Amino acid sequence: MKEQNENTLVSLIKNRLTVLQPSFLEVIDLSDLHKNHNKPENSGHYKVIIKSDKFINISKIEQHRTVYKCLEDLIPSPIHAIILETKN
């Protein structure tokens, strides 16, 4: 059941970020690397690599804010931590 929930969350993250019309999008669940980390139950660590023309002419900080805005109700749970790699 845990694997299904993780796959569902990866799918949810991808779905939320489609609004940015990415030309590339990868969501990686890194939760297994943080098994002993003190975090809320049923929350995980993720890495998002996203390339979008929506990021053209905006700073890296604004790119990250744009992604966070799409995911804000998922943080801090079920997304406990997220690594962002944004590209334009």
Automatic annotation (TrEMBL):
Top-rank taxon: Bacteria
Entry-linked Pfam families: BolA
UniProt cross-references to InterPro entries, sorted A to Z: BolA, BolA-like_sf, BolA/IbaG_stress_morph_reg
PANTHER family: BOLA TRANSCRIPTION REGULATOR, BOLA-LIKE PROTEIN 1
Family in the record: Belongs to the BolA/IbaG family.
Protein name per Swiss-Prot or TrEMBL: BolA protein
